[in-house]
Write a structure and sequence with these properties.
By secondary structure, this protein is of the alpha/beta class. Helices cover 29% and strands 17% of the residues. The chain is globular. It starts with 27 loop residues before the first helix and ends in a 9-residue tail after the last helix.
Length: 340
């Protein structure tokens, strides 16, 4: 059996002929460019790549990719993607969603896709606002957020998407931001390589309805002192001169310290491959919001049986034990039948 070589492609090959319709200056442009530039390096085919989305600004993504795609309904993209990925293991399936789409009406679909470990790459653009419907507060908006739907300030406690994903037992969880193309591409590459559900939160600026939401940590002048890079097997430290670091106290709490005072030996070494999600969860809680030093990178990357493969094995075992069924005969058999 011979296989056809995967053709060499460029960003242009992955770019559709559709006019990109996001607000000028939107962070979505940066994310789109990062992925279109990365895909030629992944050794995949356009005809074997599918982008699925729900509703929201992020959901326009499939239109701009020269691949197969589906703009589905609000919050349901993970459910549709689960069916596709489970029955077509030959496809690369990506889900593009936003904080409103994924964590409000789509919350139930998201957590079950994560726990099942379906072979999906879920990119969640988090701008802490509803952009498409013109500026209502979202499930990640901070307490006291004044919007069109919360004129006196939101009283809701926001979701931490990374914490939620780890709590749902996701096997791959990462965070990046729209101001660093190289970092985005590395997180997307890692997500693509993972065998199972990959969840990547992307801090994305909505310059019309929530401009500057992440500026205190992603601004070029503060980035080195406010973003904490997570590198597997390396001590967790940050700052312009790596002068700050993270330690774990005897009670399990994580704390940011000056390396000169605490000593390098005291620094926490990041272990993204730990089966116990406790450390990854603790890292996700290190910052109470994007105004404090915030971890970015891969929080967790562990192996677990992939849902589609397990489902296929189950079907094969059933056929071996019972023999191949006749679906046509079943459908023509009347309104009732006997199950032995």
């Amino acid at each position: 059996m011979t296989t056809t070589a995967i053709p060499v492609t460029t960003r242009k090959d992955w770019t559709s002929d559709q006019e990109v319709r996001w607000c000028p200056g939107c962070g979505d442009y940066s994310i789109l460019a990062a992925l279109q530039m990365l895909l030629p390096e992944l050794g995949v085919r356009r005809e074997s790549t599918v982008f699925l989305s729900g509703i929201g600004c992020a959901a326009r993504f499939p239109y701009y990719m020269n691949t197969y795609g589906l703009h589905s309904i609000h919050g349901r993209a993970p459910a549709i993607a689960t069916g596709l990925a489970s029955t077509r293991p030959d496809l690369d399936v990506w889900v593009v969603t936003g904080d409103g789409d994924a964590l409000s009406i789509g919350g139930n679909h998201l957590i079950h896709a994560l726990r099942r470990n379906v072979r999906l790459r879920i990119l969640m653009f988090n701008n802490q606002i509803y952009g498409l419907t013109k500026g209502q507060y979202s499930p990640t908006s901070e307490v006291a957020k004044v919007t069109k739907s919360t004129p006196f300030g939101s009283v809701d406690s926001p979701f931490n998407p990374v914490s939620l994903a780890i709590g749902a037992e996701a096997t791959f969880v990462a965070r990046t931001h729209d101001m660093d193309r190289a970092h985005m591409q590395e997180m997307f590459r890692r997500a693509h390589e993972h065998k199972g559900t990959s969840f990547v939160e992307v801090y994305q600026n909505c310059n019309v309805f929530n401009d500057g939401a992440f500026e205190k940590i992603t601004g070029r002048e503060v980035r080195s002192s406010m973003l904490i890079p997570l590198v597997h097997g390396q001590p967790i430290r940050f700052g312009a001169d790596n002068e700050r670091g993270v330690v774990q106290r005897s009670d399990g709490r994580l704390e940011i310290v000056d390396v000169a005072e605490a000593g390098e030996a005291a620094l926490l070494v990041h272990d993204e491959k730990s089966d116990d999600p406790s450390l990854a969860f603790a890292l996700s809680r290190l910052a109470s919001g994007p105004t404090e030093p915030t971890p970015v990178g891969v929080f967790r990357a562990v192996e677990r049986p992939e849902y589609g493969e397990e489902l296929s094995r189950q079907i094969v075992r059933a056929q071996e034990q019972r023999g191949a069924g006749d679906l046509g005969a079943l459908l023509r058999s009347g309104s009732s039948w006997t199950v032995e």
